[in-house]
User: What shape does this take?
Amino acid sequence: DLTLDISEMTGVHIDPSRAPVAFGRLAIPELFAQLVEPDAARRLRALASLCDLTHDPERLYQVVSEGTRWSVPPRAALGKWLRPTRCLLARQALLSSPLLARLSQLLDDPSPLCRTRAHRRQEEKEEEVQALLLSTLSCCSRLDAAPALSHRGVTLIGRKLSHACSNIRREAAGAMMALSVIVIAMSQVCEAAVLPVLADLLRDQDVDVQANAAGAIMNTVVITTGDFALDVLPVLLELLSQRKPDVEEEQRRKALVLYSLRALTSLAEAPEGRRRLLLQLPLLVGRSEPPEEDADIRRAARTAVNVVTWTP
Assistant: This one.
Protein backbone atom coordinates (compact mmCIF):
# COMPACT_ATOMS: atom_id res chain seq x y z
CA ASP A 1 0.00 0.00 0.00
CA LEU A 2 1.71 3.18 -1.24
CA THR A 3 -0.85 5.56 0.18
CA LEU A 4 0.54 8.05 2.72
CA ASP A 5 -1.37 9.58 5.56
CA ILE A 6 -0.30 13.23 5.68
CA SER A 7 -1.36 13.44 9.33
CA GLU A 8 1.39 10.94 10.20
CA MET A 9 4.17 13.05 8.66
CA THR A 10 6.46 14.83 11.09
CA GLY A 11 6.22 18.56 10.79
CA VAL A 12 9.17 20.89 10.42
CA HIS A 13 10.71 21.74 13.76
CA ILE A 14 10.45 25.48 14.41
CA ASP A 15 12.39 26.93 17.31
CA PRO A 16 10.50 29.97 18.62
CA SER A 17 13.77 31.40 19.97
CA ARG A 18 15.25 31.55 16.44
CA ALA A 19 14.27 33.60 13.43
CA PRO A 20 13.41 31.62 10.29
CA VAL A 21 16.26 31.50 7.80
CA ALA A 22 15.22 32.12 4.21
CA PHE A 23 16.71 30.41 1.17
CA GLY A 24 19.16 32.01 -1.22
CA ARG A 25 21.84 34.65 -1.02
CA LEU A 26 19.58 37.21 0.64
CA ALA A 27 18.93 35.02 3.69
CA ILE A 28 21.81 36.38 5.77
CA PRO A 29 21.29 40.06 4.80
CA GLU A 30 17.66 39.65 5.83
CA LEU A 31 18.67 38.43 9.28
CA PHE A 32 21.02 41.38 9.72
CA ALA A 33 18.25 43.72 8.68
CA GLN A 34 16.16 42.32 11.52
CA LEU A 35 18.88 43.35 14.02
CA VAL A 36 17.80 46.98 13.63
CA GLU A 37 14.09 46.27 14.04
CA PRO A 38 12.40 48.12 16.92
CA ASP A 39 11.04 44.84 18.31
CA ALA A 40 13.64 43.56 20.83
CA ALA A 41 12.34 39.97 20.71
CA ARG A 42 12.71 39.89 16.95
CA ARG A 43 16.25 41.23 17.18
CA LEU A 44 17.22 38.50 19.66
CA ARG A 45 15.72 35.76 17.46
CA ALA A 46 17.64 37.05 14.44
CA LEU A 47 20.86 37.22 16.44
CA ALA A 48 20.37 33.65 17.71
CA SER A 49 19.94 32.42 14.13
CA LEU A 50 23.06 34.28 13.01
CA CYS A 51 25.06 32.74 15.84
CA ASP A 52 23.88 29.31 14.70
CA LEU A 53 24.95 30.04 11.12
CA THR A 54 28.49 30.83 12.25
CA HIS A 55 28.88 27.11 12.97
CA ASP A 56 28.08 26.31 9.32
CA PRO A 57 31.41 26.26 7.39
CA GLU A 58 29.63 27.14 4.14
CA ARG A 59 28.03 30.27 5.59
CA LEU A 60 30.53 31.41 8.19
CA TYR A 61 32.51 33.78 5.99
CA GLN A 62 29.34 35.33 4.55
CA VAL A 63 27.93 35.90 8.04
CA VAL A 64 31.04 37.65 9.30
CA SER A 65 31.58 39.62 6.08
CA GLU A 66 27.98 40.78 6.00
CA GLY A 67 28.12 41.59 9.70
CA THR A 68 30.95 44.07 9.24
CA ARG A 69 28.62 46.28 7.20
CA TRP A 70 26.28 46.68 10.12
CA SER A 71 26.73 48.14 13.57
CA VAL A 72 28.12 46.00 16.41
CA PRO A 73 25.51 43.55 17.78
CA PRO A 74 23.84 44.24 21.13
CA ARG A 75 26.46 44.11 23.86
CA ALA A 76 24.50 41.52 25.84
CA ALA A 77 25.19 39.05 23.01
CA LEU A 78 28.75 40.14 22.33
CA GLY A 79 30.22 36.97 23.84
CA LYS A 80 28.21 34.68 21.53
CA TRP A 81 28.96 36.90 18.57
CA LEU A 82 32.73 36.73 19.09
CA ARG A 83 32.98 32.98 19.59
CA PRO A 84 33.12 32.21 15.84
CA THR A 85 36.16 34.48 15.46
CA ARG A 86 38.20 31.55 16.74
CA CYS A 87 37.75 30.10 13.23
CA LEU A 88 40.43 31.01 10.68
CA LEU A 89 37.93 32.20 8.05
CA ALA A 90 36.15 34.43 10.54
CA ARG A 91 39.46 35.88 11.72
CA GLN A 92 40.41 36.76 8.16
CA ALA A 93 37.09 38.49 7.61
CA LEU A 94 37.42 40.31 10.91
CA LEU A 95 40.94 41.53 10.15
CA SER A 96 39.82 42.93 6.79
CA SER A 97 36.86 44.78 8.28
CA PRO A 98 36.33 47.92 10.40
CA LEU A 99 34.76 45.84 13.17
CA LEU A 100 37.88 45.86 15.35
CA ALA A 101 37.73 49.65 15.56
CA ARG A 102 34.13 49.39 16.73
CA LEU A 103 35.12 46.79 19.29
CA SER A 104 37.72 49.17 20.69
CA GLN A 105 34.92 51.65 21.46
CA LEU A 106 33.33 49.03 23.70
CA LEU A 107 36.35 49.12 26.01
CA ASP A 108 34.81 52.22 27.61
CA ASP A 109 31.26 50.89 27.67
CA PRO A 110 29.31 51.44 30.91
CA SER A 111 28.54 47.72 31.15
CA PRO A 112 31.26 45.73 33.03
CA LEU A 113 30.28 42.56 31.16
CA CYS A 114 30.67 44.28 27.80
CA ARG A 115 34.06 45.73 28.75
CA THR A 116 35.28 42.31 29.92
CA ARG A 117 34.27 40.61 26.68
CA ALA A 118 35.75 43.37 24.55
CA HIS A 119 39.07 43.21 26.43
CA ARG A 120 39.14 39.43 26.06
CA ARG A 121 38.67 39.68 22.30
CA GLN A 122 41.34 42.33 21.93
CA GLU A 123 43.82 40.20 23.90
CA GLU A 124 43.04 37.14 21.78
CA LYS A 125 43.62 39.09 18.59
CA GLU A 126 46.92 40.51 19.85
CA GLU A 127 48.14 37.05 20.86
CA GLU A 128 47.12 35.64 17.49
CA VAL A 129 49.11 38.31 15.65
CA GLN A 130 52.19 37.71 17.81
CA ALA A 131 52.04 33.95 17.22
CA LEU A 132 51.66 34.50 13.48
CA LEU A 133 54.65 36.86 13.39
CA LEU A 134 56.80 34.39 15.32
CA SER A 135 55.76 31.55 13.02
CA THR A 136 56.66 33.65 9.98
CA LEU A 137 60.00 34.60 11.54
CA SER A 138 60.72 30.93 12.20
CA CYS A 139 60.10 30.02 8.54
CA CYS A 140 62.25 32.91 7.28
CA SER A 141 65.07 32.08 9.69
CA ARG A 142 65.29 28.55 8.34
CA LEU A 143 66.23 30.06 4.98
CA ASP A 144 68.44 32.87 6.28
CA ALA A 145 68.87 33.70 9.96
CA ALA A 146 71.20 36.65 9.41
CA PRO A 147 68.53 39.38 9.13
CA ALA A 148 66.86 38.30 12.38
CA LEU A 149 70.16 38.10 14.21
CA SER A 150 71.21 41.56 13.01
CA HIS A 151 68.04 42.99 14.55
CA ARG A 152 68.48 41.47 18.04
CA GLY A 153 66.30 38.51 17.18
CA VAL A 154 67.57 36.27 19.98
CA THR A 155 66.90 38.88 22.67
CA LEU A 156 63.46 39.84 21.36
CA ILE A 157 62.32 36.27 20.83
CA GLY A 158 63.71 35.26 24.21
CA ARG A 159 61.27 37.66 25.88
CA LYS A 160 58.36 35.74 24.37
CA LEU A 161 59.46 32.37 25.73
CA SER A 162 57.81 33.12 29.08
CA HIS A 163 54.53 34.41 27.64
CA ALA A 164 51.33 33.23 29.28
CA CYS A 165 49.90 32.05 25.95
CA SER A 166 51.05 28.55 24.99
CA ASN A 167 50.76 29.34 21.26
CA ILE A 168 53.22 32.21 21.62
CA ARG A 169 55.60 30.10 23.74
CA ARG A 170 55.48 27.34 21.14
CA GLU A 171 56.16 29.66 18.21
CA ALA A 172 58.87 31.56 20.11
CA ALA A 173 60.68 28.33 20.98
CA GLY A 174 60.34 27.22 17.36
CA ALA A 175 61.84 30.50 16.13
CA MET A 176 64.67 30.18 18.65
CA MET A 177 65.39 26.67 17.39
CA ALA A 178 65.50 27.97 13.80
CA LEU A 179 67.92 30.74 14.78
CA SER A 180 70.23 28.62 16.91
CA VAL A 181 71.54 26.49 14.07
CA ILE A 182 74.42 28.91 13.37
CA VAL A 183 77.33 29.57 15.68
CA ILE A 184 76.68 33.29 16.14
CA ALA A 185 73.16 32.58 17.33
CA MET A 186 74.39 29.87 19.69
CA SER A 187 76.70 32.36 21.34
CA GLN A 188 73.94 34.95 21.60
CA VAL A 189 71.62 32.41 23.22
CA CYS A 190 74.25 31.82 25.90
CA GLU A 191 75.11 35.49 26.38
CA ALA A 192 71.46 36.58 26.61
CA ALA A 193 70.72 34.01 29.35
CA VAL A 194 68.09 32.33 27.19
CA LEU A 195 69.18 28.77 28.04
CA PRO A 196 67.66 28.81 31.56
CA VAL A 197 64.33 29.92 30.09
CA LEU A 198 64.46 27.15 27.50
CA ALA A 199 65.21 24.66 30.27
CA ASP A 200 62.08 25.78 32.13
CA LEU A 201 60.04 25.14 28.97
CA LEU A 202 61.09 21.49 29.05
CA ARG A 203 58.52 21.11 31.85
CA ASP A 204 55.78 22.92 29.92
CA GLN A 205 52.35 21.30 29.67
CA ASP A 206 52.37 21.64 25.86
CA VAL A 207 54.36 18.87 24.15
CA ASP A 208 55.12 21.07 21.14
CA VAL A 209 56.55 23.76 23.43
CA GLN A 210 58.74 21.12 25.08
CA ALA A 211 59.91 19.77 21.73
CA ASN A 212 60.84 23.18 20.33
CA ALA A 213 62.67 24.09 23.53
CA ALA A 214 64.58 20.79 23.43
CA GLY A 215 65.47 21.48 19.80
CA ALA A 216 66.89 24.91 20.66
CA ILE A 217 68.89 23.40 23.53
CA MET A 218 70.10 20.61 21.22
CA ASN A 219 71.51 23.22 18.84
CA THR A 220 73.04 25.41 21.53
CA VAL A 221 74.82 22.82 23.69
CA VAL A 222 77.07 22.00 20.75
CA ILE A 223 79.26 24.90 21.87
CA THR A 224 78.21 24.96 25.53
CA THR A 225 79.82 22.60 28.02
CA GLY A 226 79.58 24.84 31.06
CA ASP A 227 77.81 24.33 34.33
CA PHE A 228 74.36 25.21 33.08
CA ALA A 229 74.51 22.83 30.13
CA LEU A 230 75.18 20.03 32.59
CA ASP A 231 72.41 21.26 34.88
CA VAL A 232 69.84 20.64 32.13
CA LEU A 233 70.99 17.01 31.80
CA PRO A 234 68.67 15.58 34.52
CA VAL A 235 65.62 17.19 32.89
CA LEU A 236 66.50 15.70 29.51
CA LEU A 237 66.94 12.29 31.11
CA GLU A 238 63.58 12.60 32.80
CA LEU A 239 61.91 13.37 29.47
CA LEU A 240 63.66 10.38 27.96
CA SER A 241 62.40 8.05 30.68
CA GLN A 242 58.77 9.08 30.30
CA ARG A 243 56.58 6.84 28.16
CA LYS A 244 52.92 7.26 27.27
CA PRO A 245 50.61 4.24 26.96
CA ASP A 246 48.67 5.89 24.16
CA VAL A 247 50.30 5.30 20.75
CA GLU A 248 49.23 8.63 19.27
CA GLU A 249 50.43 10.57 22.29
CA GLU A 250 53.77 8.76 22.20
CA GLN A 251 54.07 9.61 18.52
CA ARG A 252 53.50 13.28 19.32
CA ARG A 253 56.48 13.08 21.69
CA LYS A 254 58.79 11.67 19.01
CA ALA A 255 60.41 15.03 18.20
CA LEU A 256 60.85 15.75 21.91
CA VAL A 257 62.60 12.42 22.51
CA LEU A 258 64.81 12.79 19.44
CA TYR A 259 65.92 16.30 20.37
CA SER A 260 66.59 15.19 23.95
CA LEU A 261 68.75 12.28 22.77
CA ARG A 262 70.76 14.51 20.45
CA ALA A 263 71.25 17.08 23.19
CA LEU A 264 72.47 14.35 25.54
CA THR A 265 74.84 13.14 22.82
CA SER A 266 76.40 16.60 22.60
CA LEU A 267 76.67 16.84 26.40
CA ALA A 268 78.41 13.45 26.46
CA GLU A 269 81.35 14.94 24.57
CA ALA A 270 82.33 16.82 27.73
CA PRO A 271 84.16 14.70 30.34
CA GLU A 272 81.76 15.59 33.16
CA GLY A 273 78.76 14.99 30.93
CA ARG A 274 80.10 11.57 29.91
CA ARG A 275 80.72 10.65 33.55
CA ARG A 276 77.14 11.49 34.52
CA LEU A 277 75.62 9.76 31.51
CA LEU A 278 77.57 6.56 32.17
CA LEU A 279 75.48 6.25 35.33
CA GLN A 280 72.33 6.47 33.16
CA LEU A 281 73.55 4.09 30.45
CA PRO A 282 70.74 1.53 31.01
CA LEU A 283 68.18 4.21 30.15
CA LEU A 284 69.93 5.00 26.87
CA VAL A 285 70.35 1.33 26.02
CA GLY A 286 66.68 0.77 26.77
CA ARG A 287 65.81 3.25 24.07
CA SER A 288 68.20 1.74 21.53
CA GLU A 289 67.30 -1.96 21.57
CA PRO A 290 63.52 -2.70 21.75
CA PRO A 291 62.19 -3.59 18.26
CA GLU A 292 58.91 -1.86 19.05
CA GLU A 293 60.76 1.41 19.53
CA ASP A 294 60.63 3.96 16.71
CA ALA A 295 63.48 3.43 14.24
CA ASP A 296 64.65 7.07 14.37
CA ILE A 297 64.70 7.02 18.15
CA ARG A 298 66.63 3.72 18.21
CA ARG A 299 69.20 5.18 15.84
CA ALA A 300 69.62 8.37 17.90
CA ALA A 301 69.85 6.33 21.12
CA ARG A 302 72.55 4.06 19.67
CA THR A 303 74.56 7.13 18.67
CA ALA A 304 74.26 8.45 22.22
CA VAL A 305 75.37 5.13 23.66
CA ASN A 306 78.39 5.03 21.34
CA VAL A 307 79.46 8.53 22.37
CA VAL A 308 78.96 7.89 26.08
CA THR A 309 80.89 4.61 26.03
CA TRP A 310 83.68 5.84 23.76
CA THR A 311 87.20 5.51 25.16
CA PRO A 312 90.42 6.81 23.61
In short: The radius of gyration is 28 Å. Confidence is low (pLDDT under 50) at residues 9-13, 71-89. Residues 112-143 form the longest helix (32 residues).
